[in-house]
Each structure stands twice: as C-alpha cells, then as structure tokens.
Amino acid sequence: MSIATDQPMATTMANTSAPVPNSIPPNHTLYVNNLNAKIKKQQLRKSLYNLFVSYGRIHAVVAMKGVKMRGQAFIVFDDIQNATSALRSLQSLMFYGKPMRLSYAKRDSDAIRNSKEQIAEKTAALAAMSQPEPKPRKEKPRIPPPPSQPPPDRTVHEQHIAMMNSEEVNRAANAVAMAEAELQELPLRDRTRRIQSIIAAQTTMIGTAVPMMTEVQSNSTLFVTNLPPETTKDALEMLFRQFSGYLDVRLVPGREGIAFIDFDNDAGAASARDALNGFKISATNAISIVHFFLSIAYPMNTLESQNNRQSEELAAKVSRLKHIAFDIENETKEHNRFLENMRFDMSTARSFLGGSTRHLSNVMSSGRGDRRAMCYIAGAIILAFLFLYYVVSSFRTK
DNA sequence: AGCACA
C-alpha cells in the first residue's frame, strides 16, 4: 500500500561504527549538515524531530533558512547520552535523498546553557544554606543499592517497589508522560511506532519495564462496509437497534455501500460488532464492521505502585501495552485496506465524526460538567479526525 | 561547506 507521509524514506543505514574523526567533545546538541536544502523548514524540523526522538527527549530542533544556514540543523537533546546514541546510529542515514552528516555542536545551545546556569545557581544556593555539605555521590548505579542495612530477606516485591520509587523510574515515567502528549498529535500509524520505541527505550534505560497503565478507548460509532447499494436506513435500523445503546444509523449521501452506526456507549457498539460482523445482509453481501479503537498509555503513578498487588500486575500491563500497539497497527492496516478502495472524502470524515461531536455537545449541554468524560470525548474526536485526515490525504497525494 | 537560538 502506498502511504504518503511527511517522512522521508529512511533507506540505507550506512551507519555501522565509523565515527567521523571528530574533535568536538560530546554535547547535548547535534549539528546536522548535508541536508536536502529543498525541504521546507517546517517539514524538515518535523521530520528531524520524528527521526531523532526515538533516541530520547528532544528540547528543540533548530533549522534556519538563511543562505549561511541552509542545509543544516541543530537537534537539542535533554541528555548527552541520547545525543551520542543518535549520533552513532543515524550517522550518514539517507534522509531526503542525501546522507546526513552528524557531529556534536561546537557550542551549547542557549537553552542548555541556561539550564546549566540554573543548576549551578541552585547548587550554589544550597551549598550556601546548608552547613553539613551533601556528600557528593559519584556515578549512580543503575539500580539503587538497598539501604545500608539490607534487611536480610527482602521480598521480591519489596525490591520491586524500591526500584519503582527510584529516581530513574520517575524519570522514565516522566519521559513517557511527555511522550504521551506528543502521541496525541501523531496519526494512529505513527503512534504505534512511538509506543514501541518508548517502551524499548525506557526498558533498556532502567533495565526493567516502566509501570504503565493503558486505557483503551473505544468509540461508540461503528463503520459498516460492503453493504449492497440498495440498502436502506430502515433495514440497517432493524438490524442494529436490538443492541443496547443503539442511537442512529447514518448513511453517507452520495456514497453507496457504507454506513455509520452510532451507539451511546462503547460496549453496545462492541457487542453489535461482534454479533453482526460478517453478517450476510443479502445473498451476495456479507457486511463488514469496523470499530475504531484508540488507546492511550500513561505511566502509572509511582506512589500507587507501593501497592503490592499492583506491582505484581506491572509486567502484565506492559505486555498488554505491547499487544495493543500491535493491534493498533493491524487495525490501521485493515482500515486502510477498506478505505483504499473508496473515494473517501472529507464529507465522509465529517459524517463519521458527526456522532461523536453530537455526544460531545450532549455532554456539554447536560450541565453535569463531567470534565473527564468531556476530555476523553474531545480527545477521541481529535484523534479520529487526525486518523481520517491522514487516510484522506494519503489518497490526495498518491 | 556553512555552527544558531531574541
């Protein structure tokens, strides 16, 4: 399938370990040159971000259009180690048709300089205030050692909990939280990749799984395809109204063969889907029903992980998360298959969203002020829109 | 090739 993205084809990885002779010491910021100067600044920044962010949190991507600065960019990492691993793995990567050249920046980026200053100020202030100087610890071990008097038989759970409360896990959880915000802005397909790389990165970073909770948000609208052209709204109504929470059938004016079925709850939609997917609505047509799912992963509150039972579930949660990531991918592919055969335009996308937006206005006007529900619905609408827009634009630019 | 950020 041909998908248009703003991502350049990342073809040959000519990386290996051939570090360019490099006199510049490691830096938070990578200097990139030999970039394709034809790419527009915004897109370039976005693509660079998407490429480099797998190696760690990125503070900024700077690219400039001027004669002197074209073809170059700066990637500001929060962490030097991450900058280093990006430098090593992406060196000479074909990017928009040209092998990019990476080195450390000669000077610190302003943002880094500032935060270094702030840290220096704080430690100076601390030193001035406190008379017993804090012992300068050297090189913190990956997993904090047990307290000086290790209780003879710490249970596995207790060790686990101690680790969960470690600074490293907190940082990892933080990284995941940042990533979550970023995920919201990515099309579904890219979210899968990001979720996987976040898990991988955090897992290697702390040597164990980050405690994550996942929330699968289903959607109370079903997408039905392969309907015979003469299908009427009444016929579909007959079929679907037996399921609890049924609200409405929406045919798409000007488009044969598809329909949207709204429910007032996810579970009703799911049970209708399970019952009717593949249903032979006529001698020749077995209908196919797609239920769009959205999922969000977020770090578990590390305080909550003090609870033993929850800490037992961590591993299971993470593996479930991985499965969900794969599921999203599969579903996305499946959707694309459906949609590739159709002229799926914006009015169709809007029609799909019609139900959701109505739910939103219902919630808003009900005056119950359920913030949480509103956020979810609004978020789901945005994600759904992004996904649909992505699908639509992939036809446009074919 | 070219090292900036307001």
TrEMBL record:
SUPFAM superfamilies referenced in this protein's UniProt entry, alphabetically: RNA-binding domain, RBD, SNARE fusion complex
UniProt cross-references to SMART domains, sorted A to Z: RRM
Main location: membrane
Keyword Membrane assigned: yes
Compositional bias of kind Polar residues: 1-20
InterPro entries given in the database record: BET1_SNARE (IPR039899), Nucleotide-bd_a/b_plait_sf (IPR012677), RBD_domain_sf (IPR035979), RRM_dom (IPR000504), T_SNARE_dom (IPR000727)
Keywords, sorted A to Z: Membrane, mRNA processing, mRNA splicing, Nucleus, Repeat, Ribonucleoprotein, RNA-binding, Spliceosome, Transmembrane, Transmembrane helix
Gene Ontology biological-process entries: mRNA processing; RNA splicing
GO terms for cellular component: endomembrane system; small nuclear ribonucleoprotein complex; spliceosomal complex
Similarity comment text for this entry: Belongs to the RRM U1 A/B'' family.
Protein name as catalogued: Uncharacterized protein
Source organism per UniProt: Adineta ricciae (Rotifer)
Phylogenetic classification of the source organism: Eukaryota, Metazoa, Spiralia, Gnathifera, Rotifera
